[in-house]
């Protein structure tokens, strides 16, 4: 009836007079039904109105006023395994069926300052009646109960592997969930898929700090990465829009908290005017450094500056430092919100779809690969040997190799790279040269360490110092493939990749991360970080992210796609042909 009411066929196209009469009756009935439905809906109280769209989502009231947006979940069967997902029930007087709503999983519940301190809630300046609302700057708010499903995929593991991020031992019966780019995320027990839910990121209608009295600080830690200035810029702009005027930039990483002698080491007062165009440049206007994180000295400095918010932009080590700072602040009774923004060019942070700067790094890596390919094609038996970043994780090498369409061999830390024998790397390069008379080889910096051996040294961040396997491979090719007269061109764009400004995708990502980090601090969260999971922005507690480095799954779909695209075998140290 609704379809006929919306788009009835012209009566002149219906040949039979009886059929035309029937059609007129159908249209009239549809109009009457539609009118009756609207009257019934309008007569209901606002709290009972439910608008359901085609995706099966239900919206209660006005989402802009902090109400909940939920997906209706089916009632589980009696045989369902307990504990695989967390739900709360909701009932309505107009329906006899029970609706189960997901709730944030306990292990992903973010710590709150309100758990320790008696903070008074205040309306957001962007809420109706707030300072900015009348200027058309009202926000659509997110409810604290809104949550995001972390893992959307389910498949059976074919072999045992290391423990997953949630601590379940993997075996052949486990249902393993994975991100789209091949990084393993999280599993279930006994072959049952387990849904894990995290807090949805975004502005809250109630905040726990009065913006005009807030003192905030921003620090960038670790190595350079595209997007640092973008995140700093958006943090400052969003804080200023809330009404925060005291925003300080800590110089040269964590050490800037307690090494402040001289004008160049003192914290910088940040304003929107100062950061307006910094996103056009690479690097960090605050400077950065590795190590130097004496937690007690840092917290002493936070106390001296009377900081309410601290935003830490960094990777796994920096987040571990942020967690230690948060714990000590609580132990000392300091009400300071410590919020992380995940940064690593290697894309090696658990649970997240990706980290900012990664896609820019892939774009820059492709430029180096294409230069190596031009060199290789321009010489007889030319070999373009490109070394890319990737200390423990080969995501940059894998994605750049697949995107470029120029690579013949890709070596990453997660796979074995035997050089000798018919099943080794050198034999495969020889076969490629025989077929194409040129070859492009991409080597992640952490590849081949099993061959060279560990040096036993670490840098200031505690990362192991790696030997240069790409240089070693260049030497081996010159000696073992001398009969091919191969002409090897070695390219290492490492620091060019790190120092470049962001591409458009990362620029958008950085802006949203910066906004959501500020929203998290005003919502009273602490010891938390913000990121993209399953296509949605979420707040996550820090401990699950820093449990270990995220790595490429050598049995995963993404690595398999690359091997198919470049015709790369699984290298094995066999000594003779079968």
Please, could you describe this protein's structure?
The chain has 578 residues and is of the alpha/beta class. Helix content is 30%, strand content 18%. The protein has 15 helices and 23 strands. The chain has a 9-stranded mixed beta sheet, with helices on both faces. The protein has a 4-stranded parallel beta sheet with strand order 19-20-18-21, sandwiched between helices. Helix 3 packs across helix 13 (504-522), helix 5 (295-305) crosses helix 6 and helix 8 packs across helix 15. The chain starts with a helix and ends in a 12-residue tail after the last helix. The model is unreliable at 1-5, 37-85, 89-98 and 155-193 (pLDDT under 50).
* Large-scale geometry: globular
- Largest sheet at a glance? 9 strands, mixed
Count of discrete alpha- or pi-helical segments spanning 4 or more residues: 15
Q: How many DSSP-defined strands?
A: 23
Percentage of residues in helical conformation: 25-40%
Radius of gyration: 29 Å
Strand order of the largest sheet: 7-11-23-22-17-16-13-14-15
Q: What oligomerization state is this entry in? A: single chain
Detail the poorly predicted runs.
1-5, 37-85, 89-98, 155-193
Main structural class:
alpha/beta
Tell me the β content. 15-25%
Residue-averaged pLDDT: 79
Whole-Å distance between the termini? 71 Å
């Amino acid at each position: 009836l609704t379809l006929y009411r919306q788009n009835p066929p012209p009566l002149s196209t219906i040949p039979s007079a009886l059929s035309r009469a029937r059609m007129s009756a159908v249209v009239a009935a549809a109009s009457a039904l539609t009118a009756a439905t609207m009257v019934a809906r309008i007569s209901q109280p606002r709290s009972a109105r439910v608008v359901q769209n085609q995706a099966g989502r239900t919206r209660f009231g006005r989402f802009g006023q902090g109400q909940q947006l939920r997906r209706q979940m089916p009632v589980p069967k009696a045989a369902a395994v307990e504990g695989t997902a967390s739900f709360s029930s909701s009932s309505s007087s107009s329906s006899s069926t029970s609706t189960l709503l997901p709730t944030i999983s306990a292990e992903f519940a973010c710590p709150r300052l309100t758990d320790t301190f008696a903070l008074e809630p205040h309306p957001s300046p962007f809420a109706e009646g707030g300072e900015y609302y009348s200027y058309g700057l009202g926000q659509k708010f997110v409810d604290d109960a809104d949550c995001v499903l972390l893992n959307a995929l389910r498949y059976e593991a074919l072999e045992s592997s290391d423990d997953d991020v949630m601590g379940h031992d993997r075996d052949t019966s486990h249902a393993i969930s994975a991100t789209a780019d091949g990084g393993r995320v999280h599993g279930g027990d006994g072959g049952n898929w387990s849904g894990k839910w995290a807090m949805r990121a975004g502005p809250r209608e109630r905040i726990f700090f009065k913006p005009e009295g807030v003192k905030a600080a921003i620090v960038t830690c670790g190595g350079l990465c595209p997007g640092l200035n973008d995140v700093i810029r958006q943090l400052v702009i969003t804080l200023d829009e809330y009404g925060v005027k005291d925003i300080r930039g800590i110089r040269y990483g964590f050490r800037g908290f307690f090494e402040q002698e001289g004008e160049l080491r003192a914290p910088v007062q940040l304003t929107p005017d100062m950061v307006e165009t910094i996103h056009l440049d690479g690097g960090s206007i605050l400077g950065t450094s590795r190590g130097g994180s004496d937690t007690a000295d840092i917290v002493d400095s936070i106390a001296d500056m009377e900081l309410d918010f601290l935003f830490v932009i960094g990777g796994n080590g920096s987040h571990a430092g942020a967690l230690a700072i948060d714990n000590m602040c609580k132990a000392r009774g300091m009400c300071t919100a410590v919020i992380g923004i995940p940064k690593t060019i290697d894309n090696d942070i658990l649970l997240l779809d990706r980290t900012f700067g990664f896609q820019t790094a892939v774009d820059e890596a492709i430029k180096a690969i294409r230069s190596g390919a031009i060199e290789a094609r321009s010489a007889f038996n030319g070999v373009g040997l490109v070394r890319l970043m990737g200390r423990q994780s080969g995501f940059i090498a894998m994605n750049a190799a697949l995107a470029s369409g120029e690579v013949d061999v890709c070596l990453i830390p997660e796979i074995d790279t035997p050089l000798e024998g018919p099943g080794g790397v050198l034999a495969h390069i020889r076969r490629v040269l025989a077929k194409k008379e040129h070859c492009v080889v991409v080597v992640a910096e952490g590849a081949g360490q099993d061959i060279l051996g560990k040096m036993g040294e670490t840098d200031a961040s505690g990362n192991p110092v790696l030997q240069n396997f790409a240089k070693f491979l260049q030497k081996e090719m010159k000696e073992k493939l001398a009969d091919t007269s191969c002409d090897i061109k070695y390219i290492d764009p490492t620091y060019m990749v790190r120092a470049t400004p962001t591409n458009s995708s990362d620029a958008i990502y950085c802006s949203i991360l910066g906004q959501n980090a500020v929203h998290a601090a005003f919502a009273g969260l602490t010891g938390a970080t913000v990121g993209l999971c399953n296509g949605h922005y979420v707040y996550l507690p820090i401990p699950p992210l820093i449990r270990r480095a995220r790595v490429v799954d050598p049995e995963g779909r993404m690595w398999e796609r690359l091997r198919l695209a470049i015709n790369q075998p699984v290298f094995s140290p066999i000594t003779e042909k079968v």
